[in-house]
Amino acid sequence: MMDNKMNRRGFFTTVAKIAGIAAIAPAALNAVFSSEANAQEKRRGSAPAAAGGGMPMVDPNDAVAKAVKYVEDFKKSAESKGNHCVTCGFYAKKEVKAGKEVGTCTIFAGKLVYANAWCASWNKKA
Ligand code: SF4
């Protein structure tokens, strides 16, 4: 009889502990993953998107941009022949910045290009 009470108490204590761990575990894991994500952002040298940092624009003077003759306005390059990022297969609209549409480009990972920019890697959107 006494053993039954002890066993029941022991069972409920164990269940309570497991339930407590189950409730705490997701929060603990979130904290770990969140701090790891922040550490990765710091290592990359960019602000987390949640902090409003957003992605930077491609600098026309950086080495890759120069190599592909990137211009922020396709009209400034005769080579563009009227083509620009918005009609390029590598472009994906992201947002509007200061009244100008910007998007991601496969060849400029982690940066944004203007919808009206152009580079020599332009490839007609399918
Ligand atoms: S590859 Fe396409 S989207 Fe990227 S910069 Fe060149 S023209 Fe624009």
Automatic annotation (TrEMBL):
It holds the Pfam family HIPIP. Residues 52-126 form the High potential iron-sulfur proteins family profile domain. Gene3D superfamilies: High potential iron-sulphur protein. Keywords: 4Fe-4S, Electron transport, Iron, Iron-sulfur, Metal-binding, Transport. SUPFAM superfamilies: HIPIP (high potential iron protein). Specific class of high-redox-potential 4Fe-4S ferredoxins. Functions in anaerobic electron transport in most purple and in some other photosynthetic bacteria and in at least one genus (Paracoccus) of halophilic, denitrifying bacteria. Homodimer. Belongs to the high-potential iron-sulfur protein (HiPIP) family. This is High-potential iron-sulfur protein.
